[in-house]
Amino acid sequence: MSETKPQRGQVPPGLHFIATPIGAARDITLRALDILASADVLAAEDTRTLRHLMEIHGVALGGRPLIAYHDHNGETARPKLLAALAEGKSVAYASEAGTPLVADPGFQLGRAAIEAGHTVLAAPGPSAVLAALTVSGLPSDRFLFAGFAPATAAARLRFLQDLAPMSATVILYESPKRLQKLLGDLVASFGAERKAVVCRELTKRFEETTRGTLAELQAAFAEREVKGEIVVLLDRAPDVVASVVDLDAALRRALVDNRVKDAATMVAESFGLPKRDVYQRALRLSEE
């Protein structure tokens, strides 16, 4: 395969964030390849991954600096990249897969470059968030990417309970080892009947999308050994739950003279909501 020689001077000075494939190597954009071929300095979350991607597409490094930049070395690597920018050079940064800054390193670098007065540009492309939303079948006009849920059980439940009333599709990343625990906590906080989707290995050979209620998904993955990258999407809350202020006010009034279970039952019936969902909300309010 013939290599594309770097052609200096075609990329304007500044920091260029490059989206890279989340699976299929051919998903990279032509503009991203142009930047990789001609930027003065390259930086990557994983230099081996970027080198391999460049080799696949015949893009030569050509003696240019390739600097590792990730969550664990930012304090030492960031000054090197800022120095290159200060010299008027073009710096291209790629996370290991997908779009930089979306659950990937790059935020501190981007903010520091902006504060120093440098140009910051994006070469858009692959994103697991948008790929999952596209194939999910859930509403896409409003969505919230919430990243990874906390690892500890108590923190995870609080985190999910805050997301449950959202009138938007909620998108989470999760480790395959923690998927079953997450689905169980989602049933408890969002309700067993909330529609949801689990996407696994998007754009890769064993890509899989599983749709259903949270109860159905919990059952489907209960006995499975899950591997690969996971994206979980939750349908927006029912319209009536969008008025969470009214719901909380009714629960607080009911909790004055009633036990949590009884208060939840009364309010659920008056709002026409699932008793389990309202009980979880009442339980949280009673603990505040």
Q: Supply the CATH architecture of the largest domain.
A: 3-Layer(aba) Sandwich
Strand content: 15-25%
Structural class: alpha/beta
Assembly state (oligomeric): single chain
CATH class division of the largest domain: Alpha Beta
Report on the biggest sheet: 5 strands, parallel
Integer average pLDDT = 91
Structural shape: elongated
Number of structurally distinct domains: 3
**Number of DSSP helical runs:** 11
Helix content: 40-55%
Secondary-structure element series? EHEHEHEHEHEHEHEEHEHHH
Q: Total strand count, please?
A: 10
From the alpha carbons, calculate the radius of gyration and give it in angstroms: 23 Å
For the largest sheet, list the strands in their spatial order. Answer: 3-2-4-1-5
What fold name goes in the CATH topology slot of the largest domain? Cobalt-precorrin-4 Transmethylase, domain 1
State the CATH superfamily name of the largest domain.
Answer: Tetrapyrrole methylase, N-terminal domain
CA(first)-CA(last) distance: 64 Å
Give start-end ranges of low-pLDDT stretches.
1-6
Domain RsmI HTH: 243-285
Organism: Gemmobacter fulvus
Main location: cytoplasm
GO molecular function: rRNA (cytosine-2'-O-)-methyltransferase activity
